[in-house]
Amino acid sequence: EVQLQASGGGLVQAGESLTLSCTASGVTFDDYTIGWFRQAPGKEREGLSTITRSDGSIYYADSVKGRFTISYDNAKNAVYLQMNSLNAEDTAVYYCAAARSNWAIVPGERPVEYAYWGQGTQVTVSS
């Protein structure tokens, strides 16, 4: 059974940093793409960053490119999202998700491509 848990959210001031963690069970990184998403009130869920270990590919949405960094720790079966230079527009509930991937299929940034989701962690940035 695939289970994901996102943590690390909180209240920060604009310009500060946060690191989100996604711990996974029932997932082998070689077989899955892990993605970070967020959803602000009244807005659609947005794909921020994905990492696929099998082919080394990493994706960043334009809205976070240069500010956010995704990484994984295989020993801890965890994926992290380092978020720098946060601003009020980054306020949202952040989710991690997993989707099967292989040499032929590498999921992208659309939430519909991901079958497994964590419960979300709130990030609030005060200006």
How far apart the termini lie comes to 40 Å
Helices and strands, in order, run as EEEEEEEEEEE
Structure annotation, total helices: 0
Question: Uncertain runs with pLDDT below 50, 5 residues or more?
Answer: none
Largest sheet report: 7 strands, mixed
Given the helix and strand composition, which structural class is it? mainly beta
The shape, in one word, is globular
Give the overall pLDDT as a whole number.
Answer: 94
What is the percent of helical residues?
Answer: under 10%
Number of strands: 11
Please indicate the percent range of residues in DSSP E strands (runs of 2 or more).
over 45%
Radius of gyration from the alpha-carbon trace, in angstroms: 14 Å
Observed structural traits:
single chain, 127 residues, mainly beta, 7-stranded mixed β-sheet
Model description:
It is built from no helices and 11 strands. The chain is an all-beta fold and 127 residues long. Strands 2, 4, 5, 6, 9, 10 and 11 form a 7-stranded mixed sheet that branches. A 4-stranded antiparallel sheet has the order 1-3-8-7, with no helix packed on it. Strand 5 and strand 6 form a beta hairpin. It is globular.
